Amino acid sequence: xxxxxxxxxxxxxxxxxxxxxxxxxxxxxxxxxxxxxxxxxxxxxxxxxxxxxxxxxxxxxxxxxxxxxxxxxxxxxxxxxxxxxxxxxxxxxxxxxxxxxxxxxxx
Amino acid sequence: xxxxxxxxxxxxxxxxxxxxxxxxxxxxxxxxxxxxxxxxxxxxxxxxxxxxxxxxxxxxxxxxxxxxxxxxxxxxxxxxxxxxxxxxxxxxxxxxxxxxxxxxxxxxxxxxxxx
Lengths: 107, 115
Fold this sequence. Notes:
The complex is a heterodimer of chains A (about 110) and B (about 120). With about 110 residues, chain A is an all-beta fold. In chain A, about 0% of the residues lie in helices and about 50% in strands. Chain A contains no helices and eleven strands. Chain A has strands spanning about 5, 10-15, 20-25, 35-40, 45-50, 55, 60-65, 70-75, 85-90, 95-100, 100-105. In chain A, strand 9 (about 85-90) and strand 10 form a beta hairpin. The mean pLDDT of chain A is about 95. Chain B has about 120 residues and is mostly beta strands. Helices cover about 0% and strands about 50% of the residues of chain B. Chain B has no helices and ten strands. Chain B has strands at about 5, 10, 20-25, 35-40, 45-50, 60, 70-75, 80-85, 90-100, 110-115. In chain B, the strands form two sheets. Chain B has a six-stranded mixed sheet with strand order 2-10-9-4-5-6, with no helix packed on it. In chain B, strands 1-3-8-7 form a four-stranded antiparallel sheet, with no helix packed on it. Chains A and B meet through strand 4, strand 5 and strand 10 of A and strand 5 of B.
């Protein structure tokens, strides 16, 4: 199975900060990676697909990069509505696997 | 607009069975792979199973293989998950999602396995 190691598991940041979250795959997954945002009590929402493509309707302050084994989600200027938990997902190989999540909290 | 509405979640005893349903609308259901993902209370996300457009390919996570069965009815735009021999560790919100790359999500249905 491909392990997705996501870091950090949590972070505290202020509105306007630049935030970076990382996912590392235990083996190469090309660009078969998505990023998701989940708010308490709600279903996840996809932000990024194919590692770097912005999902329709998602603000441009979100961006993704990477391929192979190392991936990054960046929020260029954190907004109040961005405080949530973020997950990566690899869909290159079965079983599909998610990262452990990053909780972004208000500093 | 893509809509996915799950139903069938309930409280069930260990060893019991449950059938989840997902009603899809707003897209051509028969042209998409479909997937179930679950989330235990306070935990992360776990892929459970998915099924090809015509049902000809199916994949499961090891922990449910042999106990859960995913199926679909393209004529009724519906996805199903038959869950047998349920265990406490199957307690979770179950989400119906579109595609192998997991794009759109339903709101989920809660399955609680407890005596």
